[in-house]
Fold this sequence. Notes:
By secondary structure, the chain is α+β, with helices and mostly antiparallel strands. It has helices spanning 33-39, 73-84, 113-122, 130-144, 148-167, 176-196, 201-212, 220-229, 240-259, 271-294, 300-315, and strands at residues 2-7, 19-22, 25-29, 47-53, 89-90.
Amino acid sequence: MIKTNLLNLDLGKNPGAERIIIGPFTIALKQDYEKKRALLEEKIDVETAEISYTKAENSVLLKSNLRKPPNAIWDIFYILSYLTGRVVITREQNYRFITQYSGGNEIVEKHDLFEAMNLAWENRYNFENDNEKRPLWYYFEYIQNSEIENQLIFASIAFEIIQEITLKEVKLDDGVDSEMVKLSSLKKELKKIITKSDISNQLKTPLLNNIGNWSSKKSVEGIRRYLFERRFLHDIQVNDDVRDRIQFINRLRNSILHRGQVAEPQNNISMEQIFNFSSQLIPGFIEDYLNSKFKIEHFHLVRQTHENMKGFLYTGKYPGIKWSIPL
């Protein structure tokens, strides 16, 4: 029997069970769990539980081509950390994590944790290849960083991967293809007009470059299709207000991916709003993807978060943020 202490596991106050079984693992809370749990507000390396097992299979959630296949205890680390928003690890094996800063969200309510843990364990095989696992890996880089711009770099990369995975087998039709054809034709015509015009060469070059950067299937229209596939949109066809908010999401993501910084304020949107919405929306898309893989979408808090994000697209408002996006 192998036994080792588990750091930072928070099952809430008076969790109702001192022992939890997940697959081949048994997690037993420390006798002074309540006292140690209270320390988690100030410390990030508190031994709140003990994990034990006799023999465990190889990890499913870590990279498949590692030279030495890791033990499935790493799958427990990922699942517990993801669901609780804290980096849950053993002291002997914390070398994989740069820091133990815990900046994630609680994905389910405390009273749903036991059921969610076992569902996630059973469904971890839904990550069929390394590319499908990458959003999970990047999410863990996200929750370990205390600087919002660093967090959003990892979150935005994960969002890009998720979008590509979601759209890989989806034909961009239902008006998307036709709109892109129209946009492509418009770009060609404008380029011809500008090239033949009397505008100075000093202005022609930036104008032509800007037109060349207008939208693509992977940007605004790609995001729109992704949002529809993931049920954030009721219909693939949207009004101008919803389209503007999709463009806002695209701008948040592109600024981080291409410039390495949070988007600059514009259209009466303050920098504080930019930071607030960035920290909610982009990670929210990753959580939505991971929740679907782990098959935990039916839990109340998961459904509520999904509805909040859908509400933003249709109203510009998001709970906990006192402003709405004035689009």
